[in-house]
Automatic annotation (TrEMBL):
UniProt key word Transmembrane: no
Record's keyword terms, sorted: DNA-binding, Transcription, Transcription regulation
One of the Pfam families matching this protein, by short name: Peripla_BP_3
Limits of the HTH lacI-type domain: 3-57
PROSITE patterns per UniProt: HTH_LACI_1, HTH_LACI_2
Protein name: LacI family transcriptional regulator
Molecular function terms, GO-annotated: DNA-binding transcription factor activity; transcription cis-regulatory region binding
PANTHER family in the record: HTH-TYPE TRANSCRIPTIONAL REGULATOR GALS (PTHR30146:SF109), LACI-RELATED TRANSCRIPTIONAL REPRESSOR (PTHR30146)
Entry keyword Transcription regulation: yes
């Protein structure tokens, strides 16, 4: 039978509270007593049960990470940044995949709270997410990563990219190449980053006095299938675009696939800009021009913010906006070069 905290206390001739203080690195224990407790732990091969210890201490050194789609390389990179920071700070991570479903998000949050985890990193939130609002109201340590909500009255930590600027410089790049009829494919409209990227797209068009065509703007999923299906639909319409701005790399790859299916060549016939700069952007043919997000840095900073709050070193309410930049590859070209 495994040794318990009671066995350690008996062997070290101290109280259970003293053993608990040693486990929590409390300054209230003398060095002599600390060494005696540690020696007892070694002799008994004692391994503390972190879940049970949640009853006697504030932290079990575990965070919950909620992401919508682990198959999307963007979220995989975010998760790697979260893991790197967790290791550096001595924490563990439980990753949950929600598939953009509020019911799955609700259930995962319930399960993780039952395990008494220390805090949440959420990258699934809609702009008025009730799950997030309830966590904030209950004063649960929380950071939103790559997402934001429209509740200025609620203090919440947020780490995001400058999505308005991202949408703007992507569209401006296409305009500078001579394109005037530019389609815009976005993710789910209930996610705030999509509205921000659309805002940047519209700003670039308006600054150059180009006509905004609502029929060239579409919301859908951050998936190859959506980019493929919607691009074919738009390219078969009366308003044939010469370029696409896609709000993530997977959607952009779907556009390239659609162009090839229709006998068009990228970038000779159609220019395509993606968003994220995931590893897929370099692997696709032709290599994808895209907006670079600092994905691992975003994950690392979000985790660091959360852990500092858990340790009582800061209060919630900080918003960190990371810069983005354009990475030009071979999926975009000047309009007059088209055959």
């Amino acid at each position: 039978m495994p040794a318990t905290i009671y066995d350690v206390a008996k062997r070290a001739r101290v109280s259970i509270a003293t053993v608990s203080r040693v486990l929590n690195n409390s300054d209230l224990v003398s060095e002599k007593t600390r060494e005696r407790v540690k020696k007892a732990m070694e002799e008994l091969n004692y391994s503390p049960n972190v879940i049970a210890s949640a009853l006697t201490k504030k932290s079990i050194l575990t965070l919950g990470l909620l992401i919508p789609d682990i198959a999307n390389p963007f979220f995989a990179e975010l998760a790697r940044g979260v893991e790197d920071a967790s290791v550096d700070f001595g924490f563990n991570i439980i990753i949950c995949n929600t598939d953009y479903r509020s019911d799955k998000e609700t259930e995962y949050i319930r399960l993780l709270k039952q395990k008494s985890i220390d805090g949440f990193i959420i990258s699934t939130a809609y702009y008025n997410d009730e799950n997030v609002i309830n966590l904030i109201k209950s004063n649960t340590p929380l950071v939103l990563m790559g997402r934001d909500i429209d509740r200025a009255d609620m203090p919440v930590d947020v780490v995001v990219s400058d999505n308005v600027r991202g949408g703007y410089i992507a569209t401006k790049h296409l305009i500078d190449l001579g394109h005037k009829n530019i389609a815009c494919l976005l993710g789910p409209p209930q996610i705030k980053v999509n509205l921000e990227r659309e805002k940047g797209y519209l700003k670039a068009l308006e600054e150059t006095n180009l006509k905004v065509r609502p029929e060239l703007v579409a919301f859908g999923e951050f998936k190859v299938e959506f980019g493929f299906r919607k691009a074919i639909e738009i390219l078969n319409s009366v308003h044939k675009p010469t370029a696409f701005f896609a709000a993530n790399d997977l959607t952009a790859i779907g556009v390239i696939k659609a162009a090839r299916y229709m006998g068009l060549e990228v970038p000779r016939d159609i220019s395509v800009v993606g968003y994220d700069n995931t590893m897929l952007a370099e692997m696709v043919d032709p290599p994808l021009t895209t907006i670079n997000q600092q994905m691992r840095k975003m994950g690392y900073m979000a985790t660091e913010l959360l852990i500092k709050r858990i340790k009582g070193k800061r209060s919630p309410g900080q918003k960190i906006v990371l810069d983005v930049d354009l990475v030009v590859r071979r999926s975009t070209g000047e309009l007059f070069n088209r055959g």
